Amino acid sequence: MNPALKPFIESFIKEEQLPEEYFQAVEHWFLPMVDEVLQKISSHQGTYVIGVSGCQGSGKSTLAALLVLVLYKMLGLRCINLSIDDFYLTHKERQALGKSIHPLLATRGVPGTHDVSLAIKTIQDLKNFGEVAVPRFDKALDDRLPERQWQSVHAPMDVIVLEGWCLSVEAQQETRLAEPVNDLEALEDGEGTWRKYVNTAIRENYGEVNKLIDYLIMLKAPSFEKVYEWRQNQENKLLEKIQNENSGSIDYKHIMSSKQLKRFIQHYERVTRHGLETVPDKADVVYQLTDKQTIEQRLK
Q: Cα–Cα distances in Å, from 167 out to 93, 206, 238, 248?
């Protein structure tokens, strides 16, 4: 590791409240991969888009933030970190979908609940000259922030890091939609209307986002069963953040209980399982994760 980079990594680990072992992961797994990326960037014209895919709790957001830090501190590259989560439809728009198509679409998360056109426009704008307003979504409020609170950046960017749990997941064959994969689908989507809508959205809309990715990294969970545990850790972290930032009364209504979280995760199950099967073949780099969210090996 470049000695000049070490204090920035140590500070990053402290700010993100990461375990000390993360430093070894950075040194052993991520920095060698960054060297590979730099070689590709050097021969690429225009903005380079790095995608980070993986299920909930796999460490996508942390890795994306780390990549931006390293690329900026090492080479002074103009970088920005985007999340597919920041392009969720507004609360009002999702409620309308829930009424017109299927009640489950009122819940953010699955393909079909993102503003794909806004995501594509934002990425394209970040490749051109000018000021760009980057959307931000507040999960605690379950709504997109008003435009006056969006991040304003001066484009073009040298590198865009886009992270998302459903990046590069393709649509399933229609025949695979017939059998429900959990209680949510069996009890609340008996006719398959919701899962067919999600699958159609993947096939017709999300491919355009995936085409913008020049280099895809996947953090591969050992199984879907670990997602609930990892997502619970995220929820605990969100609660702690809200408690630390609010000196007055705290609104807990958007912090999910264990029961609510279990139901919420079932919204993601079908697409996540399909992604675990198919995304590794499309990724440039695949890190196999252990049950403890650490990296076991690099598969490709």
A: 22, 8, 23, 38
CA-closest candidate to residue 261, choices 294, 283, 291, 230? 230
Cβ contacts of residue 139 below 8 Å, gap of 6+? 85, 238, 254
The radius of gyration of the chain from alpha carbons, rounded to an integer in Å, stands at 19
Count how many Cα atoms sit within 13 Å of the Cα of residue 295 in the half-sphere of its side chain.
22
Q: Is 232 exposed, middle or buried (0-12, 13-18, 19+ CB in 10 A)?
A: middle
Strands 130-134 and 48-54: unpaired
Q: How far apart are CA 288 and CA 295, in angstroms?
A: 6
Query: In 3D, which of 68, 102, 125, 110 has the Cα closest to residue 202?
Result: 110
- Please give the average pLDDT of every successive group of 10 residues along the chain, which has 300 residues: 87 91 94 94 95 93 96 92 96 97 96 97 97 92 93 96 96 96 96 97 95 97 88 72 60 67 91 96 97 92
Strand partners, 82: 162
Q: End-to-end CA distance of the chain: give it in Å, rounded.
A: 22
Question: Which uninterrupted H or E stretch holds 53?
Answer: strand 48-54
> Which amino acid, residue 202?
I
**CATH entry, 6-10+28-298, from 3.30.240.20, 2.40.30.100, 3.40.50.12780, 3.40.50.300:** 3.40.50.300
E-strand ranges in 85-168 read: 130-134, 137-138, 143-144, 151-155, 159-164
Q: Give domain limits for the chain.
A: 6-10+28-298
| pTM tops 0.85, yes or no | yes
253 SS3 class: coil
